[in-house]
Amino acid sequence: MANFSKSNVPQFSVDVYQNEYLPEGGREVNAIVTVTSTGGGTVGGTAVRAYAAGSTPDAAVAIMVDCSGSMDYPPTKMRNARDATAAAVDTLRDGVHFAIIGGTHVAKEVYPGGGQLAVADATTRDQAKQALRKLSAGGGTAIGTWLKLADRLLASADVSIRHGILLTDGRNEHESPEDLKAALDACAGRYTCDARGVGTDWEVKEVTGIASALLGTADIVADPAGLAADFTQMMEAAMGKEVADVALRLWTPVGTEIKFVKQVAPTVEELTSRRTEAGPRAGDYPTGSWGDESRDYHVCVQVPNADLGQEMLAARVSLVVPQGDGSVQTLSQGLVRAVWTDDMAASTSINPQVAHYTGQAELAQVIQQGLEARKAGDMDGATAKLGRAVQLAAASGNEDTAKLLAKVVDVEDAATGTVRLKAKVEDADEMTLETRSTKTVRVKK
Question: Which of 60, 140, 158, 179 has its CA 20 to 30 A from that of 187?
């Protein structure tokens, strides 16, 4: 549980962006909630926190490395995975608990073994890297077993921040989708996990599904040579986390209904179904662990009908974190309001943040729909959806996504979304677009 006695923990703020004005009969209120955490001692994702004498980092990390037979094709893949894991181990702060897991159709403890976690220092980091040299490829893939072993090991540490890093190069062929889902359900809320697919023989929806369920990041590393840099960056970000189990708590008055809650930056992540009840008319939506960062959430509520001139609190947004005694600490709050007016200019104006992120959510959706249509042989449908994606990316200034789209379609006119499907598309380019389709950009100032 979080302990806020340390002087340099992050400070949280909540800012609400909305058009609170509704026309007569209007019932839907949309707001973008920006949550910012500052002052936790990280710079650019790299931890620079100075711990008081005698104190230790409040974190544990499990690194899960795919060791299935396909990791030997080509042999450089396994070598790069070993090197990347060694680089991640070198990035661990002294005092962080850690373990390395080798994943095949079963999960094996590579280091330290015996159901234990090691505590990072010069000696254990060196021992871990020695153990990594013995890793070899052979066997199948059952990712749920890796996740469950990571959960058992991480749970043994008396820490607040529990994090996993998972690398796979293939499809989860040696357990059922139901088994993987059961493992994710069991691990959700117990630790966060970043997932990476290396090469192009893995399933995008499996890797992104793992990261989504465990509130981590997902990405492709098409060239295994890029693994070490990626693992270092992931571990630096993990080392920068200071507060775990932060929840977005929404309280609504009688007669008001939450239509949806989704994270919209830095990625689109649906949270509506993850609500847990938190007392009368209140529910908590998980956000995972925080360091120095800012994220945006789209909250949509349906309010009861009211007369012109009336106003009401549509929702109270709080950031809460659990305490050891079962209570929660409120870190910051913001208010979502509704005001009924007959001023048409006021009630029909769309808040720029709301409009922007509605477009970004649609962008993620049409990319996925377009790629599905392309795989199914529906070229007209794929052209229409990916054309719309090009148009949305251009309008919002999402240049990274626009570049990825340009590897899948030939853009004739971005403004109108006029495109032609490329006759030949590299697997890596298509998978990169699908994996990164939910990444968003913030509103242009």
Answer: 140
Distance CA 230, CA 167 (A): 11
Check pLDDT > 80 for residue 371.
Answer: yes
pLDDT of residue 132: 97
Strand runs labelled E in 236-354: 243-251, 257-265, 269-270, 276-277, 282-290, 293-302, 311-322, 328-340
Band of pLDDT at residue 220, cut at 50, 70 and 90: very high
Chain centre to alpha carbon of residue 12: 19
Distance (Å, whole) CA 275 – CA 278 = 9
| Residue 157, CB-side half-sphere exposure with 13 Å CA sphere | 27
Q: How long is the chain?
A: 445
Q: Which two tokens stand for residue 50?
A: 């100075």
CB 331 within 8 A of CB 13: no
Cβ neighbours of residue 370 closer than 8 Å, sequence gap 6 or more: 381, 382, 383, 384, 385, 386, 388, 389
Q: What is the widest separation between alpha-carbon atoms in the chain?
A: 73
pTM higher than 0.90 for the full model?
yes
Question: Is 401:173 a contact under the CB 8 Å cutoff?
Answer: no
* One-letter amino acid for residue 90 of the chain: D
Give the span between the Cα atoms of 150 and 146, in whole angstroms. 6
pLDDT of 43 strictly over 70: no
Q: Which pLDDT score, from 0 to 100, does residue 56 have?
A: 62
Report the alpha-carbon distance of residue 156 to residue 154 in Å, rounded: 5
